[in-house]
């Protein structure tokens, strides 16, 4: 069995009286595309922030690559790529300059960095847009630039927080295909999304969160079988435990009885 790439044990994070993470337990294996699902407020973003040591947590243990993750674990952080839901690029820099800047945070050698930037531009299909500024890009191209900036240094672990939000179907498919290619090239990927069909298409295992804890976990087939045993719901919507519990899909708010 592949070794654990990310290990989260008994993780608790509170904001006053609100418990954002309630004894969260997760194990993500090397080589996976691991889907992390849940409605808004379920704790996904908080879990990722704690994983990256961007937030202090009240209790628990986090290990990445078998080592404890701390705010000053720079050697670990060099091996992690982050693609945020909110596009994080500089409007004053061109496409190529943005990718070079973010790659330069990890890679100091100019020759190596130049090669990596070219690889990232080619990988995301931005060859014809390298001299353009972000404000001139379409939503889909801007998302691709965001991804290029996060993966240019070829990290072992990539965290993608809803990278396909508000993009057209063609750009969405391009992004999903790119994620699978990154995985085939050796990266382990944590993928958060509200879209059931995306997770069903690309993820090897899935965890569904609610109220700061995992309420179901497994492959898509294991989750489908779990729900069928509970409720008899069929079709791909049956993979979502939240749907069967609340009799609706929190991704689209369509009552379950109308699509079974």
Structure write-up:
It contains nine helices and ten strands. Helix 3 crosses helix 4, helix 3 packs parallel to helix 5 and helix 5 packs parallel to helix 6.
Radius of gyration (CA) equals 19 Å
Got a strand count?
10
The poorly predicted ranges are 233-239, 244-248, 250-260
Mean pLDDT: 87
- Between the first and last Cα atoms, what is the distance in angstroms? 36 Å
**Helix percent band:** 25-40%
Structural class of the secondary elements?
A: alpha/beta
Strand content: 15-25%
Strands side by side in the biggest sheet: 6-7-8-3-9-10
Instruction: Please work out how many helical segments DSSP would assign.
Output: 9
Q: Oligomeric state of the chains?
A: single chain
Principal-axes geometry comes out as globular
Order of helices and strands: EEEHEEHEHHHEHEHEEHH
User: What's the story with the biggest beta sheet?
Assistant: 6 strands, mixed
């Amino acid at each position: 069995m592949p070794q654990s790439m990310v290990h989260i044990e008994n993780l608790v994070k509170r904001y006053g009286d609100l418990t954002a993470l309630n004894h969260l337990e997760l194990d993500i294996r090397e080589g996976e595309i691991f889907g992390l699902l849940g409605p808004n407020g379920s704790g996904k973003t908080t879990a990722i922030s704690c994983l990256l040591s961007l937030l202090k947590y009240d209790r628990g243990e986090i290990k990445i690559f078998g080592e404890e993750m701390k705010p000053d674990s720079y050697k670990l952080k060099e091996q992690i790529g982050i693609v945020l839901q909110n596009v994080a690029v500089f409007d004053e820099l061109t496409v190529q300059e943005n990718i070079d800047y973010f790659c330069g945070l990890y890679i100091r050698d100019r020759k190596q960095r130049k090669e990596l930037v070219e690889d990232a531009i080619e990988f995301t299909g931005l060859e014809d847009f390298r001299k353009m500024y972000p404000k001139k890009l379409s939503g889909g191209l801007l998302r691709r630039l965001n991804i290029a900036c996060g993966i240019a240094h070829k990290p072992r672990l990539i965290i993608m927080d809803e990278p396909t939000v508000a993009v057209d179907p063609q750009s969405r498919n391009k992004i999903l295909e790119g994620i699978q290619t990154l995985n085939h090239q050796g990266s382990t990927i944590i993928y958060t999304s509200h879209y059931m069909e995306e997770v069903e298409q690309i993820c090897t295992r899935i965890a569904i969160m609610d109220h700061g804890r995992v309420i179901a976990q497994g492959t898509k087939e294991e989750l489908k079988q779990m729900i069928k045993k509970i409720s008899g719901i069929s079709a791909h919507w049956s993979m979502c435990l939240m749907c069967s519990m609340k009799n609706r899909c929190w991704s689209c708010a369509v009552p379950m009885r109308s699509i079974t």
